[in-house]
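HUMAN: Forgive my ignorance: could you write out one protein's sequence and backbone structure tokens?

ASSISTANT:
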Amino acid sequence: VELGRHLAEIAPETPILFMTGYVDETLRRHGLSDEGADFNLIRKPFRAVDFVGKIRSLLDARFDASPSIGA
């Protein structure tokens, strides 16, 4: 969690995906929650298709946020 927060500070354009098997209470103790999250989280266990979909959405969001060439 600390590494993710530090990376977000120094390179905010870098997508970060947290992966966890912890229960909600443990996540809240670390300042993480699914509700209104400003980070990306995938919970274990997950299917490969869900993992790939999460990665794709992170990459698409990064691409969509990039300035257009010639704009």
Observations:
- Strands lie at 17-20, 40-43.
